[in-house]
Design goal:
single chain, mainly beta, 14-stranded mixed sheet, 2 helices
Length: 362
């Protein structure tokens, strides 16, 4: 090859390699659901907080979902995952998990490939449904742009003697990613999964079109959705259309290392031989002065940082101070840092333990 033509060829190759390197890094920064990090685990229990149903927003890349002003209803249902007791539910295939949630007992099979729903029971409503062709809920791995449609067929019994048939399609799409702003935290690189379950239900009273649309936001370090919105539309051939909206947050679930805009949330005790330090704040919310205190069982190096809700470091309140045994007190004055009304985080570091506290400036 002529050297004059070879040099541009080298430069072009380098540029292509550089492009794919940057492209790969950007892809890796996004959240991807997989079995190791998001598969259901028997024995897990988590508390939902019900909220008023918000607008789910639009699809696409680099979205910002601002749910900082969501309204809580005060209800906190509990979900439990457990290994199903034997004998197993008769008439359906193998499954390895049972999910108890909102009065329903869902029978699931979770593998490294996918999560299937094989049936469910609601004792209060006297409903039992078995899928002869199960519903695939999610496939692993699943990233932005991933999509699939699965057909399902189910038969059931309600009110002990009446039969019903239910069949249709379940379409799942990772339709958006971006930043999720919650009342107590801002989470980068969240992935939104949209699922639409469209089916025809046939029973002795007639037929009904059923459409279940669900949005779920996932983030790195959180095994289960941080936020989920569900709309159930029941459109009978005779009678009024029924539409039910429900929404839940699940930000208090255990997580591994979720980065909240540069701030590690929660309590991390890296030395199990030392007791946890408990921080108390008052008043919170506050106007100008917030008091904080904690009790040290031994001399400890302490750092205190103040962050905005976006994770920006506003100031060090204390940095690597060696403090003595006993009760320690301090105060945060909003006027000293020109704090506007809003949500902030105080990060306390006690040697190897980290405690994050949300504070609200009125």
């Amino acid at each position: 090859m002529n050297l004059v033509h070879f040099k541009p060829y080298i430069m072009k190759t380098i540029l292509i390699l550089a492009f794919f390197t940057v492209f790969t890094i950007r892809l890796n920064a996004q959240t991807t659901l997989n079995y190791a990090n998001n598969g259901l685990i028997s024995g897990d229990s988590y508390n939902f907080q019900e909220i008023e149903f918000p607008d789910p927003g639009i699809a696409g890349a680099n979205q910002i979902w601002d749910f900082s002003k969501i309204t809580f209803t005060g209800k906190s249902p509990v979900g439990n995952l457990q290994t199903p007791a034997l004998p197993k539910m008769d008439g359906i295939g193998d499954y390895n998990l049972s999910l108890l949630e909102n009065g329903y007992d869902y029978f699931l099979n979770c593998t490294e490939v996918d999560l299937e729903e094989l049936g469910y029971v609601n004792s209060d409503n006297k409903i039992t449904l078995k899928y002869t062709d199960p519903v695939v809920k999610i496939k692993y791995p699943f990233a932005y742009g991933s999509s699939f449609t699965d057909h399902f067929i189910g038969t059931g019994i309600y009110s002990e003697t009446n039969t019903l048939d239910f069949f249709g399609d379940h379409t799942v799409t990772a339709d958006a990613y971006g930043t999720l702003i919650m009342p107590d935290r801002t989470i980068q690189n969240t992935l939104r999964i949209k699922s639409v379950k469209t089916g025809l239900q046939i029973n002795m009273c007639g037929t009904a079109d059923v459409i279940i649309t669900k949005y779920a936001w996932y983030a790195n370090g959180y095994r289960y959705p941080v936020l989920s919105l569900t709309t159930v539309e029941n459109r009978p051939n005779i009678g009024a259309i029924q539409i039910t909206n429900t929404a839940f947050t699940n930000t208090q679930q255990p997580f591994k290392s979720a980065t909240i805009s540069g701030v590690k949330s929660g309590i991390q005790t890296l030395d199990p031989t030392k007791s946890n330090v408990i921080v108390t704040l008052s008043p919170n919310p506050f106007n100008d002065k917030l008091n904080y205190q904690y009790d040290l069982s031994e001399p400890t190096t302490v750092s205190i940082e103040l962050y905005s809700i976006s994770g920006k470091n506003i100031s060090w309140i204390a940095k690597n101070q060696l403090q003595s045994v006993g009760l320690q007190n301090g105060e945060l004055k909003a006027s000293a840092y020109d704090l506007a009304s809003g949500i902030y985080f105080m990060r306390f570091t006690f040697d190897k333990q980290i405690v994050i506290c949300k504070v609200v400036k009125l």
